[in-house]
Amino acid sequence: MSSLFPFFVTAFVSLFVIVDAIGNTPMFLSITPHNTHAERVRMAKKAAVAVFIILTVFAFLGNRIFQFFGVTIDAFRIAGGVILLKIALDMVEAKSLRTRHTPEEDQEGLAREDVAIIPLAIPMLSGPGAISTVIVLTAQATSAGLMGALMAAIGLNALLVYLILRSSDRVVALFKETGMRILTRILGIILASIAMQFILTGIQHYFTDHR
Question: How buried is 211 (Cβ within 10 angstroms: 0-12 exposed, 13-18 middle, 19+ buried)?
Fold first, then answer.
């Protein structure tokens, strides 16, 4: 039981930072300029459910993906860590995260009446970084209790996606442009530390297993 809470905290913080619901609120508002508050609330709910389903699917299929492609968990830890590190460095520099979504996808979102699934849920919220993080965490969840902690972290993050996006007007007004950039940089530093830990753990385990 002593390892459940630290694992839950790691999983929750990792996903909270990489999903970055707060950082995605300005984009959500920009691609729903003509929607009412009630419509945005419905889209926020649909996006949160989609994020939960997408991340849960990859949580349960993670090991099968490794087996199918013949990839070791250590290789995926390192690869996932590199992806997260790239995203983290962009966040520290307050750059737009092209790793999650492109301008073309944003323009497509403007043309849609309902952006909840595409591009909001995927790739903006549950993109390659979030999926990689879930798969790496799944490999570390070696017991039913740890897997339950991971599912709780995914569920709590999905709930926060809903609560934050439904209040996107207030979030943007609260943080303003400068505050959003400061918050993004702080979260980027945290994510960079998590990414480096993934990489170092992967390297350590690889050399331990191949002695």
Answer: exposed
